[in-house]
Amino acid sequence: MITPEYGQVLASYNQWMNDKLYRICQGIPQEERQQERGAFFKSIDGTLNHLLVGDKIWLGRFINQPFRAPLNQTLYADFADLWQERQRVDQQLLDWASGLSQEWLAQPFSWTSGSDGETRIRPTWLLVAHLFNHQTHHRGQLTTLLSQMGRDPGVTDLPWMPTFHEAQGSS
After folding, report:
1. For 111, phi and psi rounded to 5 degrees?
2. 101 φ/ψ angles, rounded to the nearest 5 degrees
3. Which of 41, 71, 113, 138 stands the most exposed, by the fewest C-beta atoms within 10 Å?
4. Taking CA 150 as the corner, what is the angle to CA 171 and CA 75, rounded to the nearest 5 degrees?
């Protein structure tokens, strides 16, 4: 089982990494960001949009404000709009994570899958872990695409997240 602190740390990590990667991506011309690169969601923009769709779907389930969209939907073709919504959702995730409780995480969670319409029940803590694992998985794909383009995302490891690093007072 995970703790509320786990959710809070990973929501901060999510925001840090998204900001870091969007800053790199803003320097890439649109046609290059949208170029098919053999990734699961085709392009850099496709991957960024998928991450946003997934976060909005899971966060919507958790806060009882459902969001439905195909997993490959382009929510925002304009990069500035995509980044603005990313920042808004990252703040929502931080706010939500700050209110997590051990009791809520310990409960079973029921949802209906958008892909097959099946209703499922899983431990809430497992689904919260999935939300953050999903983000990390696809950001890993994104850092690979950026590296292949000669764009270095720098250190992406959790212990080097500036806010965590500063809070621990270590190097």
Report:
1. -150, 160
2. -130, 155
3. 113
4. 90
pLDDT digits (tens, 9 = 90+) for 86-144: 999 999 999 999 999 999 999 999 999 877 889 999 999 999 999 999 999 999 999 99
pLDDT at position 164: 62
Q: Which amino acid is at 68?
A: R
Question: b or e along 4-37 (b: 16 or more beta carbons within 10 Å of the residue's beta carbon)?
Answer: bebbbbbbbbbbbbbebbbebbeebeeeebbbeb
Under DSSP, is residue 121 helix (H, G, I), strand (E, B) or coil? strand
The encoded tokens of residue 39 equal 């990734």
The per-residue DSSP string of 31-67 comes to HHHTS--SBTTBSHHHHHHHHHHHHHHHHHHHTT---
Closest CA to 96 of 123, 132, 72, 43: 132
